[in-house]
Amino acid sequence: MKLDSKIPQGPLSDKWTNYKDHLKLVAPNNRPKIDIIVVGTGLAGASAAASLGEMGYNVKAFCFQDSPRRAHSIAAQGGINAAKNYQNDGDSIYRLFYDTIKGGDYRAREANVHRLAEVSGNIIDQCVAQGVPFAREYGGMLDNRSFGGVQVQRTFYAAGQTGQQLLLGAYSALSRQIGLGRVKMFNRHEMLDLVKIDGKARGIIARNLVTGELERHSAHAVVIASGGYGNVYFLSTNAMGSNVTASWKIHKQGAAFSNPCYVQIHPTCIPVHGTNQSKLTLMSESLRNSGRIWVPKRKEDAEAIRAGKLKPTQIAEEDRDYYLERRYPAFGNLVPRDVASRAAKERCDEGFGIEANDTNEGVYLDFSSEVKSKGKEVAYAHGNHNPSEEEIIKLGKQWIEEKYGNLFEMYEKITDENPYETPMKIYPAVHYTMGGVWVDYNLQSTIPGCFVAGEANFSDHGANRLGASALMQGLADGYFVLPYTVSNYLADEIRTGKIATDSPEFEQAENNVKETINKFLNNNGSKSVDHFHKRLGHVMWNKVGMARNEKGLKEAIEEIGQIRDEFYKDVYVPGSADELNPELEKALRVADFLELGQLMAMDALQRKESCGGHFRDEYQDAEGETLRDDENFSFVSAWEYKGQDTTQAVLHKEELKYEFIKIAARNYK
């Protein structure tokens, strides 16, 4: 396997423009002769399918949900970044580029990140034209707010449902192409294998999840946009159906899998409340704009809160430890996610946690200061220059409700606590995965004709993603990168003609899928799929989670291997193959998670440094901050599949060369 990143030559700010100018094109009259498959219909997949359909290609789009509108992109709450500088606070394309590189702890590819920053402004214009209802200021201009890891306001938002509104915009564009017949939509279908012919991606085997029928679909190029792999931990903020299967299948067919150990732990999630819980709920990072994070200064106060003897509102201001403001005064509550998460873990590990569960994991996100501050502002704007305390609090709560009302309502429905009156309880949880399928500058994997977009690829976020950058990357890939790079690849496919699905390669791929399905259905084990998934998640969270060390990682590799062996011997999958069978779906997905989990631990073990979301206990400074090793680990790890025994995977390295920025210690103090 050879890694050729295909990064263009020339000045950083000119690379993408010059590169586009010299890409090969497919003439409009030739595009209807070419078929493209898009797997996944979140922001990356829906925008890619809509754009390629608009260009005139024949597109087949696949999603396992009953509608593209249910893709997990709808769960993104806080916003989408773009370097518009509407707030006149010093933002620029370079600033967004630099913040993203720094936020990723200098482990991202320079050229890809700059391209992302360049096209970010176009995304906002595109979405406004589609009717996305971004928040606006009094004068009608689009509003912005701050997110972690930056000192400007560049995040565009639509209340606390930005992902949903952006996806509806992409879905409307996709629906138009479906109506015109350029995109054929396959809902309730799951890709179970990639088909290669003469080394090129030429189609997929998909299972109709309603009837159980296996289908063959051919194409001249395949785009994987199936999201991340956070559900390897069982408990995460991801939708329960989110999985790694599409990415893992192409990995097993020859696509390198990169940086699997880079997992983002989001600092503002509702804490785990029981052993039977199956999903965690994210509270938007936007809340850190207005909320202050704290724990009691005294352990006895924390113990009293956990015992139900003391309420947070009874803790005096001077007895609260606003630990992010104390440790990181320059950024305060808006430090990057990995920094905020580790700081919360440190406080809880020291005994200051406030949530009364087995692990005492929880801190407060408190809005009382913002309520008073904004209440005074609103009163003053209304001409009341001497408002009472009661008036201030009333007006402040109204301001908070306008800004974050749906998030507060969601929190109250889940916890039965009113966040206007008492601080939210939060704790870090698995959220996003920066690792993924290795791609070059064209977003093409190491399999010719197989492209990967959005969270499914590794390319833009390094070791930690800044908040509000996931939506930016998904739409950048789909609307503004793939239409150029896929066309460049397809320019040589005009004379290929229709690709038949009765070839030996399709036959073999379908038989392999059938064999796997039959093995599970005939296994006659005694334990459910969830039994094994939970055990895997327990190992992953405790040994490949927020903090890692050599001993734990070696144990994890061994233990996951044992769980995997037991899984194949003793898993019970009821029902049959020719029907709607959710347990069969889960079994196929968990089988892939078990292989991936081992690779994540292996990747974390070989990376003997701390960077971003990858934190090794052995590599930290005196203040508990990450210690990078730029001399030995400034590379992208790219793993080559070498058979069912994941421990035999081969590591390849793409060296990261920074020509236009100076690598420095990441400092938010």
TrEMBL record:
<dbReference type="InterPro" id="IPR037099">
    <property type="entry name" value="Fum_R/Succ_DH_flav-like_C_sf"/>
</dbReference>
<dbReference type="Pfam" id="PF00890">
    <property type="entry name" value="FAD_binding_2"/>
</dbReference>
<keyword id="KW-0285">Flavoprotein</keyword>
<dbReference type="InterPro" id="IPR011280">
    <property type="entry name" value="Succ_DH/Fum_Rdt_flav_su"/>
</dbReference>
<dbReference type="InterPro" id="IPR030664">
    <property type="entry name" value="SdhA/FrdA/AprA"/>
</dbReference>
<dbReference type="InterPro" id="IPR036188">
    <property type="entry name" value="FAD/NAD-bd_sf"/>
</dbReference>
<dbReference type="InterPro" id="IPR003953">
    <property type="entry name" value="FAD-dep_OxRdtase_2_FAD-bd"/>
</dbReference>
<dbReference type="Pfam" id="PF02910">
    <property type="entry name" value="Succ_DH_flav_C"/>
</dbReference>
<protein>
    <submittedName>
        <fullName>Fumarate reductase/succinate dehydrogenase flavoprotein subunit</fullName>
    </submittedName>
</protein>
<feature type="domain" description="FAD-dependent oxidoreductase 2 FAD-binding">
    <location>
        <begin position="35"/>
        <end position="471"/>
    </location>
</feature>
<dbReference type="InterPro" id="IPR027477">
    <property type="entry name" value="Succ_DH/fumarate_Rdtase_cat_sf"/>
</dbReference>
<keyword id="KW-0560">Oxidoreductase</keyword>
<feature type="domain" description="Fumarate reductase/succinate dehydrogenase flavoprotein-like C-terminal">
    <location>
        <begin position="533"/>
        <end position="668"/>
    </location>
</feature>
<dbReference type="InterPro" id="IPR015939">
    <property type="entry name" value="Fum_Rdtase/Succ_DH_flav-like_C"/>
</dbReference>
